Amino acid sequence: MKSVKPLQKLIDSFQKLPGIGPRTAERLSYYLLHVPQSELDSFADALERVKRDTVLCEICKSVSETSPCAICSDRNRNQAQILVVEQPLDVVAFEKTGKYFGLYHVLHGSINPLDNIGPDEIFLDDLFSRIKNAPNELEVIVATNPTMEGEATSMYIAKEVKKIIAEKNGNGRKIVLSRLGVGVPTGAYLEFADENTLSQAFEGRKNI
Fold first, then answer.
1. Given Cys at both, which of 27, 29, 72, 92 links 68, Cβ 3.0 to 4.6 Å?
2. pLDDT in tens, 87-108
3. What is the pTM of this model?
4. CA 151 → CA 88, 106, 132, 164, distances in Å?
């Protein structure tokens, strides 16, 4: 049976979301038919506001309601640490651990030549500018995902930051570069790791 046009349009929209296949898209769409109109209106309003009422923080590039974000604006955070992650969800994951009190930098992706994503397509230049203009002592903690793309991004960051270190450390500034340690399995994504695993990875970080 051919789907009703409004339903088919909704099904097609759901299928554009990551991890949503045709069957799941159909189930979600037909489920919404039985939801009270008030809940649908609230859902539609939330969808409309998600882009309109959020911004990227001008400093760390995380998603926020304000710029600078609450973390970058908090002077009680450790200004001498920058944790580099791929996605805003990684910030949420680390904040849940309650073990990290420094700053963040969100790349919004990783280097992936197969998808034509190079260093210029993610927020790497902004990261390097922050490092160059950082306080006298700084630890840059690379927390990209332990995937092929994440490792390629980590290696690129290490290469570029070591150039900055060679210049800045010679001027009396101490910049340390480290990488998450054991705890996160190869091929995993940080946003799905539990708090204990992330805590172990953070505490076991090593210089690179």
1. 72
2. 999 999 999 989 899 999 999 9
3. 0.79
4. 18, 16, 23, 20
